[in-house]
Structure formats: structure tokens, C-alpha cells
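Audit log entry. Action: structure prediction of a protein-small molecule complex. Ligand: coenzyme A. The ligand was supplied as SMILES and no pocket hint was given, so placement is left entirely to the predictor. Protonation state taken as written. Sequence taken verbatim from the request; no trimming, no tag removal. Recorded inputs:
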Amino acid sequence: MQITCLKENHIKEIILLSDKIFGLNFLTTKCLYQYINSHVHFGFVCTIDKNIIGYILADNINYNLLKSSFLKDNEWFETALIGLNNICLIKQIAVAEESRKQGVANLLIQKIGGLAETHCCLAWKRGQSTPLKNVLLRNNFKFQKTIQEYWKNDSQMRKYNCSTCGKPPCLCRAEVYFKKKASTIS
Ligand SMILES: CC(C)(COP(=O)(O)OP(=O)(O)OC[C@H]1O[C@@H](n2cnc3c(N)ncnc32)[C@H](O)[C@@H]1OP(=O)(O)O)[C@@H](O)C(=O)NCCC(=O)NCCS
């Protein structure tokens, strides 16, 4: 098992994985290109024998970018993250079904651990379960709140399917988690 930076030749495979796990067209090729050789967008893939079994996408954002970084409740995020200028937002993390429960997500989260002082993740809640929850808690993320229908407008606007809801609108909830360095906790 190997974790490396996301490269152009990974894009096709990542899109296939995302279409299957999250829903058709949720992740686009255009979006993924932003993660290649960037100082702001970070992408890592986990491979076995050159096959991608998982990936993580994360953005480094500063306080001024908060307004445009979330799909809902922007004012709440601005208040909750006030004074913090070095924030890593986990945009997506996924592991192929047949490779789960082997610690891959844990490794991917640890890979981005040093990117910023504060980490934020909107974890997808499918029905009553939040698949990423325990991995986040184990990595010292703290639950903040649940946002109802977080992707509703975005799924209608960008016309992507959700693997739980089907055609738009996606009505899934998101759980917000933060990990703040001790010196930044207010
Ligand atoms: C959520 C997700 C990324 C987790 O990936 P994963 O690689 O299975 O995660 P990990 O292996 O690190 O941890 C998952 C579980 O396996 C367990 N595990 C890890 N290594 C293990 C091993 N060697 N043997 C047995 N169990 C193990 C962990 O303890 C953890 O258990 P818990 O959740 O009951 O506490 C994956 O399920 C997924 O892609 N889900 C769909 C997409 C999704 O929800 N993504 C998050 C969107 S924000």
C-alpha cells in the first residue's frame, strides 16, 4: 500500500471511484485538475499495485475564503472559525468498498494532518450512519453540528446524482467536525 500525490494519470480512476461511491458527476475532471501541482489544493491517492483504492482531497483556505467554501450556513462557519487563518478543509475522502476497514482512510487523514493548524471536515451522513465518524474522532476531530440537506441546492445546480438519494435533489445531511491545535482553541 502506497500513498502518493495525486497526478494527472490518476484522474480517470478517481472519477470512476467517486461516481460509484458518491454518485454520478459529483466529482468532475475539471475540479480534479485543480489538485495537480497546487499549493492550495491537495490530493493524495492510496494505491496497491498501481490501482487506486482510496483518495483524499483537501483545500487550504484562509478566513477570507470561508464565505465561498461552504454550501450552507456560511455565517455559522465564519463565527466558529473566527480568528483562524490557516484552515484545511477536507473536501472528499473515499475508499473502495473492497479495501475498507484496513486503515486506509485513517492513513489518508493522517497524511493531511500537517497541512494546517485547523482542520475541518463535512462528513456525509447516510441515513443514520456517518461512515467517516470514528476515523475522525480517532484523529482528534470534534463533532460540531449536523447540517440538514447540505448538498440540496448544489446537487440541483450542478446536476449530480447521490448514491443514496438518486437524482437531485440530494437530501443527505452533513456532520461538521473540527480539529484545532491547542493554541487556537478559544
Ligand atoms: C468512510 C470511509 C472513507 C472509511 O474508509 P476506511 O478505509 O474503511 O476507514 P478505516 O479503515 O481507516 O476505518 C474504518 C474502520 O475499520 C477499522 N479498521 C481499520 N483497520 C482495521 C484492520 N486492520 N482490521 C479490522 N478493522 C480495521 C477501524 O477501526 C474503523 O472501525 P470503526 O469505524 O468501527 O471505528 C469509507 O467507508 C468510504 O469511502 N465510505 C463512503 C464514502 C464516505 O462516506 N466518505 C466520507 C465522506 S466525508
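Audit: result stored. The radius of gyration is 16 Å. The mean pLDDT is 94.
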